[in-house]
Amino acid sequence: MAAADPISAGERDLAQVLAASCAEPPAAYLQNEVMAGVADGTLPVIDVPQVDISLLSSPCPATSKAEAQKLGSALSTYGCCLAVNHGTTSAFLDSVRDVLNDFYRLPLEEKTRHARPFGNWEGYGFDEIPDNYGSLDWSDRLMIMISPEEHKKMQYWPEAKPPNFRRIVEEWASKLEVLLEKVLKGMATSLDLDEKSFVEEMGEPRIVARFNLYPKCSRPDRVLGLNSHTDGSAVTFLLQDKEVEGFQLLLKDGQWVRVPVTPTDALLIKMGDQGEIISNGEFKAPLHRGALNTQRARTSIAVFCIPEAAKEIGPAKGLVDETRPAKYKKITDYERDYLQESNHRTLIDSLKL
Ligand SMILES: O=C(O)CCC(=O)C(=O)O
Ligand SMILES: [Fe+2]
User: Fold this and answer.
1) CB 3.0 to 4.6 Å from 54: which of 85, 133, 240, 301, for a disulfide?
2) ipTM more than 0.90?
């Protein structure tokens, strides 16, 4: 649990001023050592497998099953895949990127009208810093629950500025609800489960959007935009920057790789810890991080799809029998514990049987 926010908003602004002037970042942001390969382009690039979401609901059973198997295989090998034909046009995704950029261009007084209060995760501003947290993240973020309707806290949603924010994000939320259901059905189908199985395990999903801005940084070899972590969600959708690369992933063999910028209308689908648990470890939540560069700020939007708080989450029934024991304990409201945990791997590890 965090006792107090050790870094004030003033210091955070300083980080951005420093970024602009290319001076040395404050010590609290520095990783212990130079991270060879993180920022200098020497890490290998992976070709993330593509999944055509429209084919998951093809009237031809062989076609939909084959696409579901592509999804399942990507999620078990890489913990992620690139979704195409996911029901949202490039033009609409550009308008989502535009409202993010318009928000971050507002003066600080305007953004802090939606500031995250101490003890909350929702709102504008940096994350609460748990005890024993490593180096700070070189990032600014706005985090809001975008679905279901009854859990939305509109005081954290930009209203008049930027003018289209609410309309665009609400429209995106309804598209993402539909996409989530298709992806959960595809995941279940790939494991030979009833297609509704994961949808039912999740209950009424909570969908949280995190609008990330990573300012440029003079020391991308010592500072991360986002420290390495797994997501606490079941499934995460990531809308990447169209031009600036920075998302990196740890493969099963221990190799960090760069994920290239995404084609304009593709969305990255990523497993979170609860996706790993529900699938009894068939799908892997990958460790990932955000790298920086000296030239340009980078943005991304991560959308976390989280099971209903009251639902008990554990390996899906159809995946456990005498020959395939449950690999994880059951848990309720994993997300609450996750948000308080400084080392996210420890939390899912504590559930392993
Ligand atoms: O910015 C990125 O590419 C990654 C974002 C992310 O992992 C997160 O917000 O959890
Ligand atoms: Fe993440």
Assistant:
1) 85
2) yes
